[in-house]
Amino acid sequence: MVTGIELRALTEAQFAGIYQAWLEYALLVFPAQHLADREQVAFARCFGELVPGLELAELSNVKPDGTLRDAPDDDMMKIIRGNMHWHQDNTYMPLQAKGAVFSARVVPAADGDTAFADMRASYAALDAPTRQRVDGLSAYHSLAHSQRKLGEETKAEESEYIGYGLDVAEAPLRPLVKVHPETGAPSLAVGRHAYGIPGLQERESEALLDELISFAVSDPARVYQHRWSAGDVIAWDNRCLMHRACAWDYDEPRVMLHSRIAGDPNSELAA
Questions:
Q1: CA distance 27 to 221
Q2: Burial class (CB in 10 A: 0-12, 13-18, 19+), 175
Q3: For a designed S-S bond to 192, which of 81, 85, 88, 259 qualifies (C-beta 3.0 to 4.6 A apart)?
Q4: 8 A C-beta contact, residue 146 and residue 193
Q5: pLDDT under 70 in the chain at which residues?
Q6: Which ranges in the chain belong to alpha helices (H)?
Q7: Which residues pair with 50 in a beta bridge?
Q8: Exposure of 31 by Cβ count < 10 A (0-12 exposed, 13-18 middle, 19+ buried)?
Q9: CB burial class (10 A; 0-12, 13-18, 19+) of residue 13?
Q10: Nearest Cα to 117, choosing from 35, 247, 236?
Q11: Residues 28/241, Cβ–Cβ less than 8 Å
Q12: Are 243 and 114 in contact (CB under 8 A)?
């Protein structure tokens, strides 16, 4: 939790301190910032270039006309429900995301949290045989595959969902162990988008990936769940954290704004 600082009026020295803390902790919470759209984008750009089209993406169950989404086949809700499973951003794209800045505009009276898992600590906690096994393995990543697996397949051309990540021609292949390009720390790199480990049968691959995800989030010491208040801002390092949204009563509005930080091609390109 970072207090006593205004993100809309950062000095270079203040951001330098924030960035070093971000590398160390991977997750920073700035309560009650209430940033305007342009202020959030400006803060996110301090971390690096933003993913085109995701400079400020609204994740919300509120339609443009102000009514709430309630149709079970609404593609935006399918993506929101999909994101309630553990994942890392942009692993299904050729270039994985570096991180994200996320803020809360409207929050429900209860629930609707966001949870984070430290994948550095998860890798460090693996027993020696498992660590030796995963060190040499990779997996394919696909948003279309993960949505289909959950029964939440989307048809973006027929809805308001922008379709980002659903039209990737060739699923990227990524190692199960990610070495952080700035700190050198290894972390477990799995999540709902991972599937199809080369060299393993489909059932064996799926079982191993499920086992690794379950292990990663099994210890409360490696997981933080944030209860949002309107105006909160979070910055997380996508290179070493998994995250997931938590369900809420969809009869209540929840409006979140996501600014996705693009990865460095020298370290975040798929294999």
A1: 14
A2: middle
A3: 85
A4: yes
A5: 155-162
A6: 12-25, 37-45, 75-82, 119-125, 128-134, 143-149, 202-216, 265-268
A7: 261
A8: middle
A9: exposed
A10: 236
A11: no
A12: yes
pLDDT of amino acid 72: 77
Buried b (16+ CB within 10 A) or exposed e, 62-91: beeeeeebeeeebbbbbbbbbbebbbbbbb
Q: What long-range pairs does 193-196 form, CB within 8 A, spacing at least 24? A: 193/87, 193/88, 193/91, 193/92, 193/141, 193/142, 193/143, 193/145, 193/146, 194/91, 194/139, 194/140, 194/141, 195/139, 195/140, 195/141, 195/142, 195/145, 195/146, 195/149, 196/139, 196/140, 196/171
Tally of CB atoms within 10 A around 223: 18
Token match 């659903």: residue? 166
Q: Two tokens at 41? A: 């984008």
Is residue 119 within 8 A of residue 218, CB to CB? The reply is no
And the tokens for 238? 């996508």
**Which pair of structure tokens corresponds to residue 30?**
């700035």
CB neighbours (10 Å) of residue 26?
A: 25
- Do 119 and 244 contact (CB within 8 A), yes or no? no
**Tens digit of each residue's pLDDT (9 = 90 or more) over 162-210:** 678 888 889 999 999 999 999 999 999 999 999 999 999 999 999 999 9
Closest listed residue to residue 178, CA positions, set 191, 195, 169: 191
The span from the CA of 103 to the CA of 244, in Å, is: 15
* pLDDT at residue 74, rounded to an integer: 87
Closest among 97, 120, 86 to 244, alpha carbons compared: 86
Query: Which amino acid is present at 36?
Result: A
Number of other residues whose CB lies within 10 A of the CB of residue 245: 19
Residues 6+ apart with CB under 8 A from 19: 46, 47
